[in-house]
Amino acid sequence: MRQTAASGKASFAMSMGPSRRSPWHLEDSKGASRRAFADLTSMRRVNLSHNSFSSGLPMELMSSGSIIVLDISFNRLNGLLPEVPYLFTTERPLQILNVSSNQFSSEFPSATWKVMKNLITLNASNNSFTGHMPSSLCIGSPSLALLDLCHNQLSGNIPNTLGNCSKLKVLKAGNNHLSGILPVEIFDATSLEYLSFPNNGLQGELDGAHMVKLSNLATLDLGGNQISGNIPVNIDHFKRLEELHLGSNNMSGELPSSLGNCTNLKTIDLKINNFSGDLGKVNFSALQNLRSLDLRRNNLSGIIPESIYSCSNLTALRLSANHFHGEISPRIGNLKHLPFLSLIRNSFTNITKALNVLKSCRNISTLLIGKTS
């Protein structure tokens, strides 16, 4: 334990490094741990991450009147995450709470956040929390900037009150059991830069008219859901978009030509949908930052557009299981950094010529070509 100065007052920080010892308990039957934590009234930062703590989390840590940073990630804590009772009439100072990568399996707290007015970061990922996403999060914690609830067992709808999160930049709740639609109110959280709900059971269509409010969005990850409809034609309003993950859904229609105007894109993942039409309608030549293009298992047709060969930084190109035809252009040799190319289950002609053409792609380590059932 070491003493630090903060705002002219004496304050303390507790940090305990990784240990390979047998599991320790933050709680014990006699309440000694609870009393010890309760007596540390000047404690401001507590880092107990990457240890072997088990049992539950003492209420005294969650409800502390002094702690602003609490990190208990990567332990073996289980049971309940304490609900801070309504008896607390004054707001708690906690700003950063990280309980990720533990073994919590209880219902995720709902009332606690009403007294967490100063909360900025909440990371509860990689547990087994059940219940719903709290509807009071940004009402009670108006400064919340990061919310990570991914890899849990949460169910129900996404609360439309998340639209009140005016300072929220990162919202992650992938790999849960969420259902319903993506509420349009969520696009009122206009500070969002990272919006991620992959591998849930979300349905409905993407509402382009409302989505464009997220002018700062860099990552959109809705893959592995049941989303239908088209990619909004105004997708190019996301000027900062770098990652687009819409794979493994029920989306259809042609890819909008406006996709070629998203010049900051590094990843386009649209695999396993029902997209159709001529891929040549998208001009890829302006996507010089593109690293990965995954369009496999759709119904796209035509020849591979020449503009793709302008994406000189591509490291993975997956076009398998579509209806492409014609010959492989010699311009594929422009993809100097391409180690992975998959073209199987299409209708390309003159494979022998294609193999000769591909000799110029000297970095290819994985090549899937030809037509297999």
Automatic annotation (TrEMBL):
SMART domains: LRR_TYP. The keyword Transmembrane applies. Keywords: Cell membrane, Glycoprotein, Leucine-rich repeat, Membrane, Receptor, Repeat, Signal, Transmembrane, Transmembrane helix. It is found in: Cell membrane; Endomembrane system. InterPro entries: Leu-rich_rpt (IPR001611), Leu-rich_rpt_typical-subtyp (IPR003591), LRR_dom_sf (IPR032675), RLP_Defense_Trigger (IPR051502). GO terms for cellular component: endomembrane system; plasma membrane. Its main location: membrane. It is a single-pass membrane protein. The keyword Repeat applies. Belongs to the RLP family. This is Receptor-like protein 2. It comes from Triticum urartu.
